[in-house]
């Protein structure tokens, strides 16, 4: 009788384990298009786009003074955010939490973190170099990017979908009519598609980001 009960218990455990493994194998990240995002964060020209959204090309300067374009993402997963070096609030909180995720993947060779400044007028390559070093960031796996402000902002609004339109009356854009300040973090796959969006100030979201990166790495 005891052996029968033991067999039944083992059988149930095996079935449950098999179902859990199968569910994990079936889990896939969504492909996020503009129509799936809060319309407040999507440029009006893209709000009805429901398929085939990918990030556009870019030309920006990293903390080493090297100008880079989209080719740096060939066959790589990207984690994207926006910040400015003198920010006293959410930026150090966000980048501090991102640094922990970065630590898990910095040696993988398959994941690249891209942090874009929203204040290129002060965040020069030299300033970003010092800032990057404070987070232990190696430009081979975590780039801090500067460049033309309009280009940086267009990427935020039309590629990464993390910032409101500059003419939206419901948002304060700071001096000179435009200023981005966002805790949004975006996960990009090797095809340039958005696969996840996260709150960079949330421990829960950053844990989920790490899990989702691993999921993409295993595909």
From TrEMBL:
Entry's transmembrane regions: 6-23
Disulfide linkages recorded for this protein, renumbered to the chain, are 87-91
| Thioredoxin domain sequence ranges | 32-218
The protein's UniProt keywords, in alphabetical order, are:
Copper, Disulfide bond, Membrane, Metal-binding, Transmembrane, Transmembrane helix
- Spell out the CDD domains in the cross-references: SCO
Q: Which InterPro entries match?
A: SCO1/SenC, Thioredoxin-like_sf, Thioredoxin_domain
Q: Which Pfam families match?
A: SCO1-SenC
Give an example GO molecular function.
metal ion binding
* Residues at which Cu cation binds: 87, 91, 181
Family from the record: Belongs to the SCO1/2 family.
What protein name applies here? Thioredoxin domain-containing protein
Organism this protein belongs to? Parvicella tangerina
